[in-house]
TrEMBL record:
The encoding gene: LOC114253521
Positions of Zn(2+) 1 binding: H556, H592, D593, D723
Gene Ontology molecular-function annotations: 3',5'-cyclic-nucleotide phosphodiesterase activity; metal ion binding
UniProt-listed PROSITE patterns: PDEASE_I_2
Active site positions: H552
Low complexity compositional bias, start-end: 35-52
Sorted UniProt keywords: Hydrolase, Metal-binding
Essential cofactor(s): a divalent metal cation
Disordered as annotated region, ranges: 14-76
Name listed for the protein in its UniProt record: High affinity cAMP-specific and IBMX-insensitive 3',5'-cyclic phosphodiesterase 8 isoform X5
Segments forming domain PDEase: 475-817
A Pfam family assignment: PDE8A_N
Amino acid sequence: MLAGEEASIELVQRWLQRRDSDELETEENPPKECSSSGSPGARAGRRSSLALTPEDEPLVDVTNRSPPPANIPTALIYSPPEPLELLCVFPERTSRVCAAACSAVERAGGEARSLRCARETLDALRRDNDTRVPHVIVVDARQPQQLDALLLARAIRGTKNTQHVYLIAIVKKSAYLKDEFGVLAYLEAGFNRVMVETVNTTAWCAEVLQARSSAACSRAQIAATAALAAAADRCRDLVAITDDQQRILLTNKSWCRMLGWRLEEGPRPIHEAAGGEALRLATTGARDWEAPVTLRRRAAPDPIMLPCRGATIGLTKTTSHIVFVCEPSAGEGDRGRGSLHSIRRGSLDVRSVASDGLRRTSLAKLQGLPLEAPITKVISLLSAATEGAPPSTVACIERAVDMLRTSELYSPQMRDETKLRVEDPIATDLIGALLSREQVNQNLVYMQGNANVLSSRRSSNDSTVVRSQTNRTNIKHKTTGQLRELLDTALSWDFEIFRLEDLTRGRPLAHLGLALMGGRFDVCAALECDERTLLHWLTVIETNYHAVNTYHNSTHAADVLQAVAYFLEKDRLKNLLEPVEAAAALISAAAHDIDHPGTSSAFLCNARHPLAILYNDVSVLESHHAALTFKLTLNDDRVNIFKNLDRDTYKTVRHHVIDMILATEMTKHFEHLAKFVNVFYAKSSGSKEDGMHTDEPLSLDTTALSQPENVLLVKRMMIKCADVSNASRPQKFAMEWARRIAEEYFLQTDEEKAKDLPVVMPMFDRATCSIPRSQIGFIDYIIIDMMEAWAAFIDMPELVNHARSNNQHWRELDEAGVTTLADVKRVQRQNAIQAPPTTTAEPTTEE
Ligand SMILES: Nc1ncnc2c1ncn2[C@@H]1O[C@@H]2COP(=O)(O)O[C@H]2[C@H]1O
């Protein structure tokens, strides 16, 4: 027990022993010497020296009259022990009543301050608001002309954080006894207690201790109430609390959001917002109930019906509050799955349902289903926001909501499409073919009888594991000095990928894979497999790339693997991804285009290729790459790098690998880019009035990385950027990749023409196509925006710098009349002559 507490208890005990004395000690009538035998006086029955009510019962306390109910959460009502703080407001500097009060507090181990006027008091309260709000304030109400105690009490109550302060008014005995209802004016002004003046320190001591205890209790209760209100505000259910007259006193944020209410609304009759069974049950006085309630939204004419759980609260037998807790999910679920149209003009007639018991039951069941899409919430919020908004805002919101109703939220609509078409048909052709899912449908006019259109190149769906790979198990040890030296630079952005292709005789993936996955990133440790299995896996994967493809071969896979490895070394990703996630990223990169036929998905669909039939024309190639990767891996224990993973880890790795490979589909390019930018970039300033496109600078905001679904966006973006990073490589690499992809496009066009198939990219005709212009379009429309977003995220400005300088270089070549493959090759030769000599590629790896 604290010394102060001990002293105060002793004081109280002494005071209790003495309280037979009924004589009031006033400034005019100072206390007699302490005596245990006080005169009995006329009101011998009184037990206190403090004149209180006519019966002298302590405290006129309107708030704490009732005992707490059994279910009050007492654990929340915690009041830490604090030294008593008293503030006296007495205009008279030498007031003996004030001196007695202060000295009592000091004897009780507390602290007392005294001030002389209302202004000083309010200033002090405002100044000390967060640090030193007193427990008790005693106000001298004896001389209204010097200090208007009632006004001061109101002002104090109007000051922040003073609800729990215990306010005592000191009055003269004569005034006190003059009017039996006189105390009411004080209570209404905010006083907790009216007390007749006394200079008895002991009496004061008891008084302030009781006041402190009452103040502490009320502070603890207020804090607990605030905590419960905060909890209600943070829950998704709609919460409303009414008084016993069914006037809504409190609503939480969900309620306000969904029904279009404002938080600070005063008491409103519940009938304004709710009707139905729950309301009927609430009025019967049932303690707990569960029933549907219909709620009216201010922004929408039709009500919604939500399951509601309710409770009636009462400290005594009478009801004090009614609590409604409504579950929002099902209510929104029945609202037409995300369309404002259906929210505005809901097809569900709640009234007719409510009149039909059977249907109501099944509706309630339906409402219990967890059907809730975030977009539904967004649309509800937006429609609520139209309430009371100016017409221009309403029009804007309605336009936004109409857009949200489409399921293709992230499909790009090329802003400058017309301009692009007019200015550059080649770019239009390329970008259109890469991004458009319509391509296939547009080209569906097809000649019969070309089932095996890929026969001139390798068929892609009947690939099998190449078995003769066992002699390559020592590949690591048989690398020559040159290859080893080259592989030592595997983590630089100007890594000589084509030299690797030469040195390995077209087997760059296995070598680079072993160096990066087996070496630097220790994928074997992450997957708990041995290096031999990894080598077999890399070999099988590489073998299933088509060496005849000019672009989509294992050199491209190795290039993408190298880019992903490079990105993974950046701090942002190093600190973000677990080893097993990094392993999954490297695996995806190595395998992402496996068995690519050298033609696009649109081509396969037009050709009615078995893969297009198998995958229903949807993400044909990417689905195949992902599926074949797992088929090849799981087919043979010697290549199964996942064989030692436990079930859950395998599932996670599989999920990541599939997700990343599917993310390389270019028709979803803008979807992935937009999601990434929306999550990790914030607009620096307000948006344009129409809320649509703006050119404001974006600032990176990585706080969203704490959510796993956002990390998924990062991984998708990583592999996407790696997949087309060729345009962001130093010029000589970018040029060679551009030549290779153009050649592959031309071959597709050749084949389409030869087989009388629809031509997916008619401009990509080897006789007429300008390669520089195709590259300018590709960089302008696909590369720059994406690389800017990614480069800032991983802090790699060279990605953008190279892309820009390549763009510039292609423009110069375009102006110089460079057009065809032959032209590009000529430029490459000239550049090679000007560049310092490089060692002739020497294939030395043993096969
Ligand atoms: N330099 C480039 N020029 C034009 N198109 C490219 C270039 N690099 C990549 N692409 C295209 O971008 C696509 C990315 O996915 P794919 O690897 O399936 O196929 C790729 C090509 O079609």
